[in-house]
Amino acid sequence: MNLLNGIDYGTPKRESEHLVTLEIDGKTITVPQGTSVMRAAAEAGINVPKLCATESLESFGSCRLCLVEIEGRRGYPASCTTPAEAGMKIKTQTPKLADIRRGVMELYISDHPLDCLTCPTNGNCELQDMAGVVGLRDVRYGYDGENHLKMEKDESNPYFTYDPSKCIVCNRCVRACEETQGTFALTIDSRGFASRVAPSQYEDFIDSECVSCGACVDACPTATLTEKTVIMMGQGEHSKVTTCAYCGVGCSFKAEMKGNEVVRMVPNPDGGANHGHACVKGRFAWGYATHKDRMLKPMIRAKISDPWREVSWEKAIGYAASEIKRIQAKYGRGSVGGLVSSRCTNEEGYLVQKLVRAAFGNNNVDTCARVCHSPTGYGLKVTLGESAGTQTFDSVMKSDCILIIGANPASGHPVFASIMKRRLRQGAKLIVVDPRTTEMVKSPHVQADYHLKLKPGSNVAIVNALAHVIITENLHQPDFIKERCEVDSFEEWAEFVSLPENSPEAMEQYTGVPAADVRAAARMYANAKNGAIYYGLGVTEHAQGSTTVIGIANLAMATGNVGREGVGVNPLRGQNNVQGSCDMGSFPHELPGYRHVSDSTTRAEFEAAWNCKLDPEPGLRIPNMFDAAMEGSFMGLYCEGEDIVQSDPNTQHVTAALEAMECIIVQDIFLNETAKYAHVFLPGSSFLEKDGTFTNAERRISRVRKVMPPKSGYGDWEVTQMLSNALGYPMNYKHPREIMDEIASLTPTFTGVSFKRIDELGGSIQWPCNEEAPEGTPTMHIQEFVRGKGRFINTKYFGSGERTNKDFPLILTTGRILSQYNVGAQTRRTFNNMWHSEDRLEIHPDDAAERGIKQNDWVGITSRAGQTVLRADITERIQPGVVYTTFHFPESGANVITTSSSDWATNCPEYKVTAVQITPVTQPSEWQREYNRFNAEQESFASTKLIPRDAELTAAK
Ligand code: SF4
Ligand code: SF4
Ligand code: SF4
Ligand code: FES
């Protein structure tokens, strides 16, 4: 069971303006109408025994342990299913009730293994607790009757075991799967004595619809569903609350530990983003942190064709600093730069950009947000005035119409998808704009009202068509626009979108979506009391990514859907700290808080605080760094936590650029694909080994807490600090909290943020958090937009430069899957591979038949950039003319295919549109063969590390 504070009120909290006052065991208590008698009692400090009830689930009333006596009522009603009513007089403890409860417990225990002392959840089992609470001393029926004690365990799930012999059929797991997760994978099979929990159609867990979120494990009051790590290691002895290092939901967890080993990660019921829920990644896939592939010693080498040489930290840092200085002396100050991953903490991101700006003396710093959500930063800033989403995740519970564009939260943001699905089950309308039939289009109890299955690359066309309907059918909100927006810009935009060329009928040729559906969807969104837009990388990773973001903001402003709960513009950030890395000034043109480096007042502030001179010119973006490397003017790179070789488009261009550089310093927990091109390797620390903060997609800054010492000896922030000191720019932080204090002192939206304040506010704060908003800002733009008046901007549609033709007749689009994460470096080193062990190419049956391709055949995918080979997955999820793959495995070479085409405003790569041809093949591509050779060579270099000889290294330069 999952309770951080130890109190389970038994049934969910209710909110109501109407209060009722009742008496329980002589105590008078007032609760909101709709509250159960059980909860009312618990709030008065009276705990009624229970088994089938738990606070996170609606009451079910099956165990009959929570019976009470109510004055004037016959019988013994269940307190969990009986609503509190004004004037009730209730007794929870009487001799009769005690008798009934003992009888109930006797029946349970007579069909339960009597192995408490060796049971993995001994001491943490509600059945055991309740036996004690009701005073059960004896079982009159004996233990020899018909029972379930010999039932076989289901061990198929890699992370948890189902032991039906211990099941009390309380239904909590079934309800958790339905209510909390929204997957509906479990059922109670059979009736009466024979009834037992069954996944899907009586399958094993692994073969069922179960997505391994663990909600049922949390909900189970017995040891029936138990984590395998708990079975193996026993229960944790101490714990700390920290934040998931995977996606932008930012779930809070309690890491339960034995010594320095994690026993399990328990989702935190007080987590502001997740409220006690989690997904298979954060809940279970943390084993990578102690995987044997972790690189724990610094290494250096002169050339990438040399074996690595293991050296001391001092030597590695000294060598890295001397190389940066040597390169700058030879090629100029701007010839080096730094990259910091959006997986790093805010404090680490802040330090890397400070290192580059203050110690390298240029602005050549960038982050992987460049390749995912940089258009969000641009598009929302120019329209609304702030480069961030407008809502909390919980806001969706007040939405009446949800418009999802280019996002699949069920895979990318699973815990948020569960919240969203809950709202959809309550009746909210759903419009999905996506080239694929994702889980959000159709899944148990969820069915999109409209699926606008557009052609990749036509987002702007569809957004304009939606706007056309809203304006020409007078569905916009003139009062909101007049009061809150720049009226001139609105009029100009309204005139633009009203043009016949932007009508759904005219746009149909580009989008492929029937005009009638677009019209109906536009009406549904505009007429909803609260309409909310959620979008993802299917919007941003396009040549017109920024244009679509602007178009989305236009739609929200025109319909008055900004500035309150239930509405808004919500970018679903891919990685854990995409928002934070952008906030921290990791882009080359912006200092922390999105202030342009050319602004002399801002620069002066940072120069005074940092005691250095700052370059007023924006630095190089990632693709510019690669181009400059090829031209011979960018020769050194410090790369913390980012695997550009696997994640960035046009792999051959990336690797050629890296090969052209003279010193690449990689700081990572694994010898990743980029490290294979590096000259200095600095071991990184996992999220379990560091203190700091992550900022999720709802601007929520949450604490990351060190639960074990860094395996390499240093946290990532310490390594950056050592490098800075070696370069002659002093950094003397003693703890990441001091870095956050500095961030707060220099960033207007963060002035109220500190580790102490985060703790005081229950573990997280949503920025802006400053004097005006000391408790943070859940909803933005309430009275006015951050920029004052909202600005409409025209969004002319241009077709992608990636055109299909007879040589490349199909469009490849890419995405992600639930069990894997980004480049897969973490999840590939866990049992998550059981769900997805390779990247495959989804292709429509018509396109497959035309090419003679059968299920699982190897197929060559050729684009203007390159060729790779994957196995085919023939499916109608994808439309004819479009193919789809993921990019979680390096040997797949998905980015060998993608091109250098990018967003006009931000250079965010156009991953979602690549013209390709698909052909049956029998062997790997040339690139894959070369990859395999290079990979084997590099792995051998790492496993045959030599003792360094400095003279040799110096001579090689
Ligand atoms: S792990 Fe999650 S999806 Fe699977 S059965 Fe349990 S609650 Fe349902
Ligand atoms: S598996 Fe656990 S939660 Fe599910 S019915 Fe059995 S005892 Fe209850
Ligand atoms: S991956 Fe995302 S949804 Fe899953 S537990 Fe981590 S933060 Fe939550
Ligand atoms: S707790 Fe109320 S019937 Fe089980």
Describe it for me?
With 957 residues, the protein is an alpha/beta fold. 31% of the residues lie in helices and 16% in strands. The strands form ten sheets. A seven-stranded mixed β-sheet has the order 13-12-27-26-25-14-15, covered by helices on one side. It has a six-stranded mixed β-barrel with strand order 31-35-32-34-33-36. A five-stranded parallel β-sheet has the order 20-17-16-21-22. It binds iron/sulfur cluster (3 copies) and FE2/S2 (inorganic) cluster. Residues 167-173, 197, 219-220, 222, 224-225 line the site of one iron/sulfur cluster. One iron/sulfur cluster binds at residues 176-177, 181, 183, 185-186, 199, 210-216.
Give me the oligomer status.
single chain
Residue share in helix:
25-40%
Which whole number gives the mean pLDDT?
Answer: 93
Number of helices: 31
Structural class: alpha/beta
Shape: globular
Strand order of the largest sheet: 13-12-27-26-25-14-15
Tags for this model:
957 residues, alpha/beta, seven-stranded mixed β-sheet, six-stranded mixed barrel, 31 helices, 31% helix, globular, binds iron/sulfur cluster, binds FE2/S2 (inorganic) cluster
